[in-house]
Every structure is written in structure tokens, then in C-alpha cells.
Amino acid sequence: MEVVRVPISGATATEIASSVRDLIASGELTPRTRLPPVRTLAVELGVNRNTVAAAYRQLAAAGVAEARGRGGTVVASVPQPASEGAGFGGRLIDLASGNPDPLLLPDMLAAANRGAYRQPLYGAPPVDPELAAWAADRYAADVAGRPFRVLVAHGAVDATERLLNAYLTRGDAVAVEDPCFLASIGTLRVNGLRATPVVVDHSGMRPESLRAALEGGARAVVCTSRAHNPTGASLTAERAAELRAVLARHPQVVVIEDDHFSAVSAVPYQRIIPPETARWALVRSVSKFLGPDLRLALVAADEETARHLDSRLRAGTMWVSRLLQHTARQLLLDPQVHELHARARTAYAERSRLLVTALNARGIATPPAYRPDGLNVWIDLDTDARAVTDALARRGWAVRPGDLFAVGSSGRQALRVTTATLTEQHALEFADDLAAVLTNPQAA
Ligand SMILES: Cc1ncc(COP(=O)(O)O)c(C=O)c1O
């Protein structure tokens, strides 16, 4: 990478950092440009190397530059995180999107029009009282009798981002599942937080891997209790107890549970937050079962964490539209929607089962007793997954390669197949095509 010569000036670390910021603002330094090596700039400015190193650290801490080890310090660019739902232009059968089945989502507009809605003005309570009461009632058992408050955020990712920023600062480490939900990876990246990978098997986070992440200094954990995206893993009662034991030894760590599939999950919720954890949140988005456009998550949290979330909402967007909250309440309390969710639960479980059965029948192995929950099936491969996704695309299928979800640099060779709308015929045809591609990649 070219090192551009620019007129950086200053005698102290703060002056040098400020000069670099001015040069970025004026366009003389552009994203991805490598700053001069510490030693070179120190000689040029007649200052100690430590002074330049401190200036570069300030810039990295502020997110203005990135320290790339041997690659030097580079002007940061706006991160472009990968996201769910990337389109494939209708050319391919989309088993990649991570989206729920639109036919299994209720009618939001009809619900918005039902019941009493009076337009709240500034100063109204930020949370619909009936929605909060409904959630408090339902969540009491899940928080094991601990005192908690219910808040409403603009979705799970929003709640997670606000909570991490309330407790952590740039450069802090957060333990997350590896592979990981794309939006969590993106949130950590754009906020300058470091993702510490925790290995996941078909029962969720591995305890020894979580222990290593915490002993390595992670200040928060974001854990998907069930229907882990991308693998479909869900915590067993036994695994959750093991994770609680690990977390109990690190009571200062913030624990965020992302229970995103709650109402349509085929398995019971398992709590990983031990009584020792002081700062915790159980986040339940409605995106997967009422629709992602509601942009709403119910959050149960200890009082301090609830206050942080509340203040961060108030200072910015103030509250989640009470019209949306009203709509969510109408839907969540509607027996017909409960029936729809019962159908969705069965349908999603059946669709992923169809695919796993079809794969196994063709010799494509999945872990013993693998019963993925959620919208995706994860297939570990012992060959280059990108070549396989390319070959599948030539046969008309869009799926995602596992390394996209990697937290570290080395992703697993795997495929994530979204089964949310999978028909039996497509399950069989896809399994045939994947078997053919794996047997003879050249012929694909
Ligand atoms: C693990 C996980 N958490 C949360 C969500 C939903 O996030 P949000 O509520 O921000 O739409 C998803 C959606 O794909 C998910 O896979």
C-alpha cells in the first residue's frame, strides 16, 4: 500500500492527531491511505516515537484510523457490513435471504386499525403500558424471579447496539458466537468494538470457548438462546447451566440474550444469565413473527440497564412509535395470531427437517440429532464453500457461504441455506444438486 506524503504537523500527540483529522476533513488524506510509519514521522517532526504512536492510538480509538499491525496505520473508511436479504435479481431460487415466510406474517395494517389508539404527544410514556404489562407477565418466569423492567427498542440490533455503547468503549471486546448473525458482526464493527469468537456447536456456545473469551477480557456477551443464525443451534438446559456457571465467575460482564425467534421457536427458552450477573438484557424482537418492518423489540432488563437503554432512546429517537407499539400489542394479544404462530412454528421446523432428511439421504452429513430451529440450515463441508455456492448458482440456487458469518479471519467451510419458504420439491432438488456438486465439482 502506498504511503502518501502529507504535511502532518504537531509537537504533541494531540496536535499530531488533530492535524491528521484536519487533513482527512480537507480531503488531503483519503480512506485507506496508509499514514507514515511512526519512526519516519517522528524523525520528520523531531518528536519522540512514542508521541507519534500515542497520536495514532488516539486516532484509532476515535475510529478515524485503523491499526493494521504490520500493515501500519490506515485512514479508516466507512464500514460496509454485509446484511440479510441481499437480492439475487430474481434469477435464482432464493435460499439465501434469511427472511421469514411472508405468508406466515400477520396483517399489520388491519391490526393497526383495531383497538383504541390515541395519538400520544411529546412527554407521553415511551412504552405502551398494556404492551409492557403483557411482556412483564410473560417474561417473569424467563428472568427467574429477578426484578426487571420492560422497554421497547427499534429491533434487536438497535437494542444491542445501544446497550453495548452504554457500557463499553471503542476497542472493547464482545464475546459473540462464531459463526455469527451478520448484523451483530456489523454493529460491533461500526462501533469500533472487537468481536471475540466463541465456538458454537449444535447446542449453542461452547462453555470452554466462552470461558476463554471472558478470561481474555471480553466485557460483554451477545448470545442467541435458540434458533441461532446461521447454524440453527439452540441451547439445551444442560448447556445453558454450563454457560451460567462460566458467566457466574465474571459477574461484571454485560450479558445480552438475543431471543429473536421466541414466539415461533420449536424449542423452549433456556436462560444463560446467572444470578451473579448484574447487568443483563433479554431482547425479544418481533421481526421474525410479526414482520421486520415493525422494527420493534421488547427488552427485559435489570433496572440500571433499563435506565441506560431508556436514556439512549430518549436522547435520540425518543421513543419507538406508539403506533407501532399499538400494532404490536394488537397482534401479540390476538388469538388468531397465536394460531398463525403455531402454524409457523410447525412449518419452519418441518421445512428445515425436509432439507436435513433429503441431505442425509444423499450422504450429506449433518451432526447427529441435528434439528435446526429458525429459518436456516447449516451444512459443514470439507471443500471450498465459495466454489460450491458458485456451482449451485449455476444450477439456479442462491445460498450463502459460511465464511460470510465468520467472526475471525478463518471461516468454516459451510453453507447456510434459508429454509423459510422451502417446498418439499425444492428440498429434494436442492439436495440432488448439492450432492452432484460435491461429488464432482468440475461437472457442476
Ligand atoms: C439472531 C438474530 N437476532 C435478531 C434478528 C432480528 O433483528 P431486528 O429485531 O433488529 O430485526 C435476527 C434477524 O435475522 C436474527 O437472525
Would you mind describing this structure in some detail?
This protein has 444 residues and is of the alpha/beta class. The chain has 3 domains: 13-75, Winged helix-like DNA-binding domain superfamily/Winged helix DNA-binding domain (Arc Repressor Mutant, subunit A), CATH 1.10.10; 93-101 and 337-443, Aspartate Aminotransferase, domain 1 (Alpha-Beta Complex); 121-333, Aspartate Aminotransferase, domain 2. Helix content is 38%, strand content 14%. The chain is built from 14 helices and 15 strands. It has helices spanning 13-25, 38-45, 49-61, 108-113, 129-139, 156-167, 182-190, 207-215, 237-248, 303-315, 322-332, 335-361, 385-394, 424-439, and strands at residues 65-67, 73-75, 93-94, 149-153, 173-178, 194-201, 204-205, 220-223, 254-258, 280-285, 297-301, 376-380, 397-398, 400-401, 414-418. The strands form 4 sheets. An 8-stranded mixed β-sheet has the order 4-11-10-9-8-5-6-7, with helices on both faces. Strands 12-15-14 form a 3-stranded antiparallel β-sheet, covered by helices on one side. α7 (182-190) links the parallel β5 and β6 (194-201). The relative contact order is 0.12. The model has no long low-confidence stretch (mean pLDDT 94). Bound molecules: pyridoxal-5'-phosphate.
Q: Domains counted in the coordinates: how many?
A: 3
Highest CATH level, the class of the largest domain = Alpha Beta
Which CATH architecture of the largest domain? Answer: 3-Layer(aba) Sandwich
Give the CATH topology of the largest domain. Aspartate Aminotransferase, domain 2
The major sheet is characterized as:
8 strands, mixed
Q: What percent of the residues sit in helical stretches (DSSP H or I)?
A: 25-40%
The helix/strand order is HHHEEEHHEHEHEEHEHEEEHHHEHEEEH
pLDDT < 50 runs, ≥5 residues = none
Spatial order of strands in the largest sheet? 4-11-10-9-8-5-6-7
Gyration radius, rounded: 24 Å
Identify the overall geometry. Answer: globular
Count the strands? Answer: 15
Number of helices: 14
N-C termini distance = 37 Å
Bound small molecules, deduplicated: pyridoxal-5'-phosphate
- Secondary structure class reads alpha/beta
Mean pLDDT equals 94
> Which percent band covers the strand fraction?
5-15%
Please name the fourth-level CATH homologous superfamily of the largest domain.
Answer: Type I PLP-dependent aspartate aminotransferase-like (Major domain)
